Amino acid sequence: MRVSIVTACRNAGDFLENCIRSVLQQTYTDVEYIVIDGGSTDNSMEITQRYREHITHFISEADKGIYDAMNKGIALATGDIVGILNADDFFPQSDILEKVVCRFAESGADTLYGDIWYVSRNNTEKAVRKWRSGHFRTERFQWGWMPPHPSFYVRRHLFEKYGDYDLNFGSAADYELMLRFLYKHRVTAVYLEELIVKMRTGGISNRSLQNRFKSNGNDLNAMRKNGIRYPRLAVVLKPLRKIPQLLFR
Fold it and tell me: Can you tell me the distance from the alpha carbon of 58 to that of 46, in angstroms, rounded to the nearest whole number?
């Protein structure tokens, strides 16, 4: 079972090497690695070239943002399973992809997700927030639940069947895609009860109050598009789910 990992980056030189090395250190070897750069002007190109022989596909060109870059990577992917690992993120252990593939094989599921930790940008041993996802039930989306996108793995044929990231939803494009797959089209999902990804803090949607309001609006639009019954309630409950993640570190 081949796994395609897509890394989208732009001016990510501070942490890109850590991300790349975490992929190359995986004990599972049937991995296709795709790096899509948005035309970086820092040392990202230099870092990528250092590992070029281990990267299956590399593109550096202007794009329409991170989800456009992800779509480019997905279009190049040939693996049975596709996962996204962005430049600020990394695999905390070398056997993560082995566990992902094993769980897919055991379950026969269409998608898989696990747990993630948000960590300090400069001290990755310091957990700022621990997101323990819990087991999947479709109705949980009605109450603001979602799986953490950095831990989300998808059988590639689903992108061909149901589409890729919709750029019209801004920073909620990942949420909209998971709603479309898991809630609207009822594809199957399995929970891997493991820490899959460590993710450095500083996401775009949380950088300012204005961005947070815009993100909430995008979430609401994604819910309405995909048939969430009580979208206004769900959009209120969605951020409230973060509170336990912050308290029980």
Answer: 13
13 vs 19: CA distance, rounded Å: 10
Q: Which whole-number Å values give the CA distances from 177 to 47, 65, 147, 170, 200, in the listed order?
A: 31, 16, 11, 12, 22
Q: Give the global pTM.
A: 0.91
Asked if 169 and 176 count as a contact pair (C-beta separation under 8 A), the reply is yes
Q: What is the pLDDT of residues 144-168, one digit of tens each?
A: 899 999 999 999 999 999 999 999 9
Indicate the fold that domain 3-247 takes in CATH.
Spore Coat Polysaccharide Biosynthesis Protein SpsA; Chain A (3.90.550)
CA dist., res. 59 & res. 175, Å (int)? 25
Distance CA 188, CA 141 (A): 14
Residue 118 has a pLDDT of 95
The SS3 call for residue 234 is: helix
